[in-house]
Amino acid sequence: MTSHQQHRDALWCWLSFADFSADQPRIDQALLQLVRANTPPEAMVTLTAATLAAVLQLYLAGTISDDDVADWAHVVELRHDIDSSAVEGFVYALANAEQMGGLNTASVQRMLALLTD
User: Fold this and answer.
1) Could you read off the pLDDT of 30-60 as tens digits, one per residue?
2) Please, which contacts does 59-68 make with residues 24 or more away whose CB atoms are closer than 8 Å?
3) What's the total number of domains in the chain?
4) Which domain holds residue 17?
5) What is the pTM of this model?
């Protein structure tokens, strides 16, 4: 597997909160996995509405916390190898939830409704 493919795989794993060990907090494990991967700048992945919706569903199910979602969104904003332009407003709102009225079930359900329309 090439370093580009490994990097893309690590990004997808992180973006979707997949493949975490049960003995470590999800966001920490995801970030560790992402940092360990080589980071070729041209290995970009796209954050789609479907992936964002899946993350929001994890929040609604209680699988991830408010802090997990905010940390996740902050990293998405900072990474140059993640194209989040299609869902940029949602990512901003999640990263700045306190300024946007807080993250709660109702706000996430509204986001999901907008994402799936």
Assistant:
1) 666 666 665 555 657 888 898 899 889 989 9
2) 59/103, 59/108, 60/105, 60/108, 60/109, 60/112, 63/17, 63/26, 64/17, 64/26, 64/27, 66/97, 66/103, 67/27, 68/17, 68/25, 68/26, 68/27
3) 1
4) 3-116
5) 0.75
